[in-house]
TrEMBL record:
Annotated protein name in UniProt: 54S ribosomal protein L7, mitochondrial
InterPro entries: Ribosomal_uL5 (IPR002132), Ribosomal_uL5_C (IPR031309), Ribosomal_uL5_dom_sf (IPR022803)
Domain Large ribosomal subunit protein uL5 C-terminal: 265-363
Species of the source: Sporothrix eucalyptigena
Biased composition (Polar residues): 25-37
Length: 369
């Protein structure tokens, strides 16, 4: 301590003042020595108050914000958790019953005339609410901005005002009334196993056909004897679709193929929304143009209800970018082929074919309505 006092006296003597000055008047090395050896109980040196006339210190605050007095107890606002705990600890009359004042959408749809209706799927409180979409698909955006209006233009049929509508023929058979049990009975279907096709309606802005879903299905009769084929099929399906496929089983016994009912011999994956448009975009712009000697989708395909399908062989599936990038990862002879089903909101195969051809799917051969 004697050496420190000597250093302080020497510094004061060189400064021309008898008493010790504050720490600010000492050199940097002396400040370092004093800061290291000073006691923690000593009071800090007083800071000089800046003069208001000095332009350098005009924008600085003299008082610190930490010296602001705290808010009184009466001004504090309770948090939601504190209010809940207060209700729980206090009288039960202060708590709101959850089953009475909280909205719960109904589990079942009881018809359009029921007083309680389910909210739309776009409402976050709905049971079938799905957040999204989180990206704007290129093919879907092109459809809504360009193709939708073109479809209405191509299928427009001018009807002069005042023209009477043609009566819709009755396709169901009525009862002859020969028995009292025929009264108030619903109409009968056509004779035989004929399936009634949906009536095709003109395309308006209310019923423009769109893609509803895309389903990929693959059947492998050799999968029960070679389980590795099932593993490869699931890997390929998940790679090109982005969803976990579903394993399908055999429904009937076939002695010629040596398959037994109940065996796992196929995979299936269904895509909706943007995923369906993404898959069609890859097929139209990346896979179809690279298939050798491929004429297109057969024009007679369809189920007469607006749903079309086509097939891809093992070599065609290998053209997908996800498989081509890691082709050595999959055994070439185990890559499966697929049947692709496109479900649309169209009411006929003609409208569905018009929709897919406008998106870029080629058709050939005889076109069937």
């Amino acid at each position: 301590m004697s050496s420190i006092r000597g250093i302080a006296r020497t510094a004061a003597r060189h400064a021309g003042a008898a008493p010790l000055r504050p720490a600010t008047a000492m050199t940097t090395s002396h400040n370092f020595s004093l800061s290291r050896c000073a006691s923690s109980q000593a009071a800090p040196p007083a800071r000089p108050t800046p003069s208001p006339s000095d332009s350098v210190f005009q924008d600085l605050e003299v008082e610190s914000s930490f010296l602001t007095p705290p808010l009184p107890e009466s001004a504090k606002v309770a948090t939601p958790r504190e209010r809940y705990q207060h209700r729980a600890e206090g009288a039960t009359s202060g708590r709101l019953p959850g089953s009475r004042y909280q909205f719960h959408p109904p589990k079942y749809d009881r018809g359009p005339l029921h007083p309680i209706q389910s909210p739309p799927s776009s409402d976050p409180t709905a049971r079938d609410f799905v957040p999204g979409p989180f990206h704007n698909n290129r093919l879907r955006q092109t459809f809504h901005s360009t193709i939708a209006s073109d479809l209405m233009t191509l299928t427009y049929t001018h009807v002069p005002p005042g023209t009477e509508k043609a009566p819709t023929p009755q396709r169901l058979r009525s009862w002859d009334g020969s028995s009292p049990y025929h009264k108030n009975r619903p109409l009968r279907g056509p004779r035989g196993d004929t399936v009634l096709k949906p009536l095709e309606k003109p395309i308006t802005f209310r019923n423009i056909p769109v893609i509803r879903s895309v389903t990929l299905a693959s059947f492998m009769p050799l999968a029960p004897r070679d389980p590795d084929r099932m593993v490869v099929a699931r890997m390929v399906t998940q790679a090109i679709t982005g969803v976990v496929p579903e394993v399908t089983t055999i429904k009937h016994n076939v002695a010629q193929w040596q398959i037994i009912k109940g065996q796992k011999a196929g995979v299936k994956a269904t895509l909706y929304g943007n995923a369906a448009y993404d898959f069609l975009d890859k097929c139209i712009h990346l896979v179809f143009p690279r298939i050798k000697d491929w004429e297109g989708v057969k024009g007679s395909t369809g189920d007469s209800a607006g749903n079309l399908s086509w097939g891809l062989t093992r070599e065609d599936v290998a053209l997908f970018p996800e498989i081509e990038a890691n082709y050595s990862m999959y055994p070439g002879k185990m890559i499966p082929g697929y049947r692709i089903f496109v479900e649309t909101t169209a009411r006929s195969d003609r409208q569905a074919r018009l929709l897919l051809s406008s998106l870029g799917v080629p058709f050939y051969g005889e076109l069937r309505d």
